[in-house]
Amino acid sequence: RHDERKVIFVGDIVDRGPRIREALHLVKDMVDAGEAEIVLGNHEYNAMCYCTRGRDEEDHIFLREHNARNHRLIRETLEEFEAHPKEWQCFLEWFHSIPLFLDKGHFRVVHACWDHHAIEHFKSLSPDHCLTMDMLYASARSGTFLEKMVDRLTRGTSLKLPDGETIISKDGYIRNVFRTKFWNEEPKIYSDVVFQPDPLPDKLMNRPLSDAELDQLMYYNHTEVPVFVGHYWMSGLPAPITDNVACLDYSAVKYGKLVAYRMDDERTLKPEKFVWVDVSPS
């Protein structure tokens, strides 16, 4: 609790330990007490789909396939709740009440990417900006608006690596796509847009972006109000990415920094308003 401020969590409370169960209880208790708010992260969304059975023949048995890769992501979470199945069910139901974004007028919060067009359309479908069970089923179907919208807001923009190239991420996964910036106004080459802790092969950094690739990107205008995101595993000294974009994920769970920004009414984000604690294994 704070006399004047309220915490806003940027999502991804689950899946990477230690003490996932404890973290969920802490965050939910703060939200329930009116001391915090939260937006949905891709890991909460993945958990909802992994634990929800399909309704008909066109769905998988579960909305997120129970293959080795997907199980590896959620394994720690499920293990911590193995002796507390009713608690886990309550948290899964709570995830449906978490909005995908918050617009406070003078600032915005979303897990990975603020997409005006997707958000405005979703507002007309969901006044509370949350996913109902019917919406969850629709979002698990490839090609639907809800599938594309949830992917954009919780995972951000990305491009497919050319010519069959792959990269190995820090968490050990082989990927054929790379995460991209959504605030670069006139990108020309790959290095202008790559935004992730895993570097691209050197031979790709100066590769020109094709028209088709440029069409897949988006731009959060520098005249917009500040937007805060998580998702991207930043490192180094916390600071704004641009005057109106800040990422608050500095890999606390990997013994980085647990970071916040003390927001008032400014339109230009200030480095001195970042606060953090360094996380140690002990």
Which labels suit this protein?
alpha/beta, 8 helices, three-stranded antiparallel β-sheet, four-stranded mixed β-sheet, Purple Acid Phosphatase, chain A, domain 2, 282 residues, 13 strands
How would you describe the overall organization of this protein?
This protein has helices at residues 20-32, 42-50, 68-80, 85-95, 116-125, 133-139, 145-155, 211-216; strands at 7-9, 36-38, 101-103, 108-110, 157-160, 167-168, 174-175, 177-180, 227-229, 245-247, 249-250, 257-261, 274-278. By secondary structure, it is of the alpha/beta class. It has two domains: 7-142 and 223-278, 4-Layer Sandwich (Purple Acid Phosphatase, chain A, domain 2); 156-219, no CATH class. The protein has a four-stranded mixed sheet with strand order 3-4-9-10, with no helix packed on it. A three-stranded antiparallel sheet has the order 11-12-13, with no helix packed on it. It has a two-stranded parallel ribbon with strand order 1-2. α6 (133-139) packs across α7.
